[in-house]
Design brief:
The complex is a heterodimer of chains A (536) and B (292).
Chain A: H1 5-10, H2 12-35, E1 39-44, H3 59-68, E2 73-76, E3 79-85, E4 88-94, E5 99-104, H4 118-131, E6 142-146, E7 151-156, H5 163-166, H6 177-182, H7 191-194, H8 198-201, E8 214-218, E9 224-229, E10 243-248, H9 251-260, E11 264-266, H10 271-275, E12 283-289, E13 293-298, H11 311-320, H12 323-327, E14 335-336, H13 359-369, E15 375-381, E16 385-386, E17 389-390, H14 391-405, E18 408-414, H15 416-424, E19 430-435, H16 453-457, H17 466-477, H18 481-498, E20 501-506, E21 508-514, E22 517-518, E23 534-535
Parallel strand pairs in A: 1-10, 1-11, 15-18
Antiparallel strand pairs in A: 2-3, 4-5, 5-7, 6-7, 8-9, 9-10, 11-21, 12-21, 13-19, 13-20, 14-20, 16-17, 22-23
Helix pairs in contact in A: 11-13, 17-18
Chain B: H1 15-21, H2 23-40, H3 42-45, H4 76-112, H5 114-128, H6 132-143, H7 147-174, H8 177-184, H9 189-197, H10 202-225, H11 237-246, H12 252-279, H13 281-291
Helix pairs in contact in B: 2-4, 2-12, 4-5, 4-7, 4-10, 4-12, 5-7, 6-7, 7-10, 8-9, 10-11, 10-12, 11-12, 12-13
The chains are: A alpha+beta (536), B mainly alpha (292).
């Protein structure tokens, strides 16, 4: 029995209709997708222990916390010389820069709609001080009080000319005091033991804790951290992206990703890797001196190591290093660090003052130390790459330098978190480390003087070097730029002469962004301020 | 009384004839022997020292540096050659150690049976419950980074498979007449185990050990790749591949040590497969049939 042509064609009708419907839905879906806010991807070699702003003090945390928590001041793009008000409407400094009065903006509210007032500022900054975490030193000696709902007063015993720069640091991000208190937060004097809000702040449940343009969506310190737009953001410039993803990627993978991605930023490429992008119109590459400084330290505490605390040993290390060959591991653009203060900051040393290798002097000092060929272990974070320079490579270069002069150096790499714990506890005898500025002011580098944060980590307590400590005290109260420059340079020259620190180099800062991004520039304080980046 | 015992030896094989029938064995043995010779004579063969940072960094392969130079100006060829001195001897040692431990445990379990067998095999099951690389990583991480600890981790991972295989073989051999005879004659257990039982299970153990050489090299390289094995600046293939991943733009840094791992693992796999064919009576019989 044969079917008529009409009957045969009849079954095609519903099929055609279904196909048409599917095509229409697909087209609609495509339209919907293209009109949605895009995703910004930031590839970064992670160094993050927490996103709790008052505890966090690592580069990756700065990217995240800048987006979630507003600070009193911030920076416009990459202009670090001039902090600009963010939460502050107006401010004034009186009593020789010892008293600061800040008038807060009255229209600011957190992501849950609660208004941001002076009580939140006082709570956040006192929490920072009393948790006594790594960033607590930022506000050392500062007293914070509220004078009315939107007025905050800060006083200091010594002039605090760097205060506005400090208040742009993400660790001074303002949290919602009511919400954080409700989740175990406290700003009381015993906050270091009583505050239990860290875990809450590391979860997406903390959505109302900040007033920034983004909120925490997903959090992992090993893979990636995602941010979602703050639907109730108070500012005039709304978040530019539907999602911001900060991913933990090694530099070579960053290089591949940024070439094939869209709305993507790579932070940790080396100068050598950046050269492979020459002529690629899809990406914009910028090279600038990095504010990071790689340095070695020898623990000055004899109970930690009788070898590294030996002054002759320290002198031998200082003159044994072949600083020029060390630069080769960073590729073009890297410069020797003449002192701990990077070249672009007030008080940095000129290149002519940089230590030069002197093998004769090094050998003589090593012989005088009596250490002979006793083994000493150089510890470094084996999984960390900064500006495309892996610590593992750097450590091997340093080892080869020292061995060629007669040292017996063993290498010991460990995960960054393990390395940081030992380093911060002051139990590391010989370490390869780095320092990035907490705020763009030379006062930040007083941490390397005896009794201060880094000094203590290198077994250099207060009273270890009266001359350097006297200069450091003078630096704190000097406000004239020329005088400050001179003092900071003297401090570094003396550190280079007899301190337990050995500045090695400033690598090249490479910043690569796809060409479809606006305002994607490197910012030494935040690495990248994702709140200012938007799609073109 | 010994005339009562049945023949203890496994059947003899004509190695040369068997090799002709097994071209993969010849290829595997040639590559493996080449690598062993390279490892033994590394200081004479390598053009430069493995640690000498004396050349321009990141040079691509050339006549002066056949495998190029790495990020610190070290000759990659020399480091690959010296790397064989780490991977191959350690793998041989590890497999010898793991097979010894596994054979003893398996033989005791199979010979004594009962409660001893149950207890030992449950312990073996515990080790089998974890994927080998994960177990090796856990052991290496607990003991701390370094080649010695990584080697120990591999032994921990490797011995249970020998124990299980040997136990099975001993169970079957234990039922054979010559072992029963030895028992009846009052031969001490230790003597019976080592003189009568173990020699008769040597064939499969040798096959397993040869295949395990490849696994040991892979595991050792894997642990070093993850930073748990050899530490810088030691030239070790796995850690060299890991260094190479930091510098994808300099492809030669990771490719050549990777090829070294590939060739040596392939060689031991060829060798192991062929040995199995030769020593296994079932496959040997099949081969003879095919030849006929």
């Amino acid at each position: 029995m044969r079917q008529s042509p009409v009957r045969r064609a009849a079954w095609l009708l519903p099929l055609s209709a279904t196909l048409a419907l599917v095509c229409a839905l697909a087209a609609f879906g495509a339209t919907t997708r293209s009109s949605a806010a895009p995703t910004l991807v930031v590839d970064n070699s992670f160094t993050i222990k927490t996103s709790d702003p008052q505890r966090a003090f690592d580069p990756s945390a700065s990217i995240i916390d800048r987006a979630i928590y507003d600070t009193l001041f911030t920076y416009n793009k990459d202009d670090l010389a001039n902090p600009v008000p963010l939460l502050v409407q107006s401010w004034k400094a009186t009593n020789g820069a010892k008293r600061f009065t800040f008038q807060l903006k009255t229209n600011v509210h957190f992501a849950n709609g609660a208004p941001l007032t002076s009580a939140d500022v006082v709570f956040s900054l006192n929490r920072l001080i009393n948790i006594k975490g790594n960033p607590a030193f930022l506000l050392a000696g500062i007293k914070v009080s509220a004078h009315g709902k939107y007025t905050v007063v800060m006083t200091s015993k010594t002039p605090a000319t760097q205060l506005t720069a400090i208040l742009a640091n993400p660790s001074t991000g303002i949290v919602n005091s009511k919400l954080v208190k409700a989740h175990g937060g406290t700003a009381a004097a015993n906050a270091s033991t009583a505050d239990t809000a860290e875990q809450f702040l590391n979860t997406p449940a903390s959505i109302g804790a900040g007033s920034g343009p983004y909120t925490l969506k997903a959090y992992s310190t090993t893979s990636q951290i995602s941010l979602a737009p703050n639907a109730k953001y108070w500012g005039t410039k709304k978040p530019g992206f539907g999602t911001v993803v900060v991913r933990n990627m090694i530099a070579p993978t960053q290089l591949i990703n940024v070439q094939r991605g869209s709305h993507e930023i790579a932070i940790d490429l080396s100068a050598d890797q950046a050269q492979t992008l020459n002529g690629n119109a899809k990406v914009h590459v910028s090279l600038q001196p990095s504010t990071w400084v790689f340095w070695l330290f020898t623990n000055n505490d004899p109970t930690v190591s009788a070898i590294t605390s030996n002054k002759q040993f320290q002198t031998a290390v200082r003159y044994a290093l072949d600083y020029k060959s060390i630069l080769s591991v960073a590729g073009p653009g890297a410069i020797q660090a003449p002192g701990m203060i990077p070249s672009m900051f007030l008080g940095s040393l000129p290149q002519k003052d940089a230590i030069k290798q002197n093998v004769t002097k090094a050998k003589a000092a090593l012989a005088a130390s009596g250490v002979a060929s006793q083994p000493v272990t150089l510890e470094y974070p084996s999984d960390l790459t900064i500006n495309g320079v892996p610590f593992t490579t750097m450590a091997q270069k340093v080892q080869a330098n020292l061995q060629s002069v007669g040292f017996n150096v063993q290498l010991s790499g460990s995960p960054t978190s393990n390395w940081l714990t030992k380093y911060r506890n002051g139990q590391m005898a010989f370490g390869l480390s780095l320092w990035g500025p907490d705020y763009p002011d030379p006062a930040d580098y007083l941490a390397f003087t005896p009794g201060q944060l880094v000094g203590l980590r290198a077994g250099w307590p207060k009273g270890s070097d009266a001359a350097i400590e006297k200069l450091a005290a003078k630096a704190l109260v000097t406000t004239a730029p020329a005088a400050r420059k001179s003092i900071y340079q003297q401090i570094q020259l003396q550190l280079n002469e007899r301190g337990p620190f050995f500045p090695l180099m400033q690598p090249t800062q490479v910043f690569v962004a796809t060409s479809d991004l606006k305002n994607a520039v490197y910012n030494a304080e935040y690495d990248v301020d994702v709140t200012q980046v938007s799609p073109k | 009384m010994s005339e009562l015992a049945l023949p203890r030896r496994a059947p003899r094989f004509h190695w040369l004839k068997a090799s002709r029938r097994q071209p993969l064995a010849v290829i595997g043995a040639t590559i493996a022997l080449t690598w062993i010779v390279i490892a033994v004579f590394a200081p004479l063969i390598a053009p430069y020292g493995s640690l000498a940072q004396t050349f321009t960094p990141a040079q691509s392969p050339s006549l002066h540096h056949l495998f190029g130079t790495d990020e610190l100006g070290r000759d990659v060829l020399s480091r690959v050659i010296y790397g064989s001195r780490v991977s191959i001897p350690i793998a041989l040692l590890l497999v010898a150690l793991a097979s010894s431990i596994g054979c003893v445990v398996g033989a005791i379990a199979g010979y004594f049976r009962g409660l001893v067998d149950g207890a030992l095999m449950r312990a073996v099951d515990l080790f089998f419950a974890f994927p080998p690389i994960i177990l090796a990583m856990v052991v290496a991480a607990v003991l701390g980074r370094g080649l010695q600890n990584a080697a120990l981790a591999i032994v921990v991972v490797a011995w249970p498979s020998y124990a299980r295989v040997v136990r099975g073989l001993v169970l079957s051999v234990g039922d054979s007449e010559f072992v029963q005879s030895a028992r009846l004659m009052g031969t001490p257990a230790r003597r019976a185990l080592f003189r009568d039982v173990l020699p008769n299970v040597a064939g499969p153990v040798i096959v397993l050990a040869t295949l395990d050489l490849a696994n040991a090299i892979l595991l050792l390289s894997g642990l070093s790749f993850l930073g748990l094995g050899a530490q810088p600046p030691q030239a070790e293939w796995g850690s060299m591949v890991a260094d190479g991943t930091q510098y994808f733009q300099w492809w030669w840094m990771g490719t050549f040590p990777g090829l070294a791992i590939f060739t040596v693992v392939l060689a031991f796999n060829f060798l192991g497969d062929s040995l199995r064919d030769v020593l296994d009576p079932r496959t040997a019989w099949r081969s003879s049939e095919e030849q006929a």
